[in-house]
Amino acid sequence: MTMDSTSSNYQSCFTELLAQPVYGMSQQEKSKKLLALMAHLHQHHLTHCSAYARLFSQAPPAFSCYDELPYLAVRLFKLQRLASIADSEVFRELRSSGTTGQTPARVILDKATSARQSKALVTIMQQFIGKQRLPMLIIDSPDVLASPDLSARAAGIQGMAFFGRKPSYALNTDMTLNTQAVREFTERHKGEPVLLFGFTFMVWLHFVKAIERSGINVDLSQGILIHSGGWKKLVDQQVTNGVFKNSLTSLTGLTRIHNFYGMAEQVGSVFVECEKGHLHAPSLADVVVRCPYTLRPLPHGETGLIQVLSALPTSYPGFSILTEDMGAIIGEDDCGCGRKGRYFTLAGRLPKTEIRGCSDTAGVA
Length: 365
Prior knowledge:
Strand content: 15-25%
Helix content: 25-40%
Largest sheet: 12 strands, mixed
Structural class: alpha/beta
CATH topology: Rossmann fold
Number of helices: 10
Number of strands: 14
CATH class: Alpha Beta
CATH superfamily: ANL, N-terminal domain
């Protein structure tokens, strides 16, 4: 981001918002601060991304509410390279995983955006994991990190690995359970708090079901599992969130299990599931739900398309994205877990859209 007046105003607003408690602001207070950031990001991308400017040059310079914010359909990131920086400033190009034949999304990062994403992820996850780095069991194969292209799946593992230490991998190259590695991990850290991370469908298919078949004793009662993605396949198999959690508790003793919702197009802005089963918007991000037919904003409790907002990206115009995911805002400021802001639930994919997400494609790096 070049340091013009818009950039300077953005940085000032971002620093102020970053200093706030992750889940401590009322929705009214947060919306006001985040809207100011959205206006700065809108102007920045109008100036620095020609494709964005062609779409939204007639949009207003400021916004009185989330409903007025322009948004990009998430599929656009598969169709063209959207960047708000010069090629010389590109630090990393993140590509989402996709099944064979699908075009991956391309997300252009500079060092500043990448650093903000990492910092945001840390502040969010520490609310659930704590600040101490824990011994970590990654429910994947180490081979996923071998590819020279950074897939979203690999990026997810790398991002979460920051919170752990002495990582072990639970799966072999062919995605079978590495029983020796799992046994050694549980024996080495018996009675200690540990961290587990994996993509949801892979945790179910290659970990939970494999433990059931093998009959090995796995004690992870002191563990915290963070997982994400692949719910469509689980729903198709009639595996609900409750079944998923109960099976893990029964087989491993795990009780602290947190799903999170996020995507390659907005890395760092993750919505983590609380103890009451709700996904929460952190201070630097938020959600809107729109009717899939008219795109008008829907009231709380009604299911529609999820629009995700993020204060983080300046290297590409991904601050306001209309996803292909369905969900409903349940409420704001009054969740039983005590966290303020909006909280919501997912309800699957928009019908007739491609299955996407890292864990749906375990054989694809």
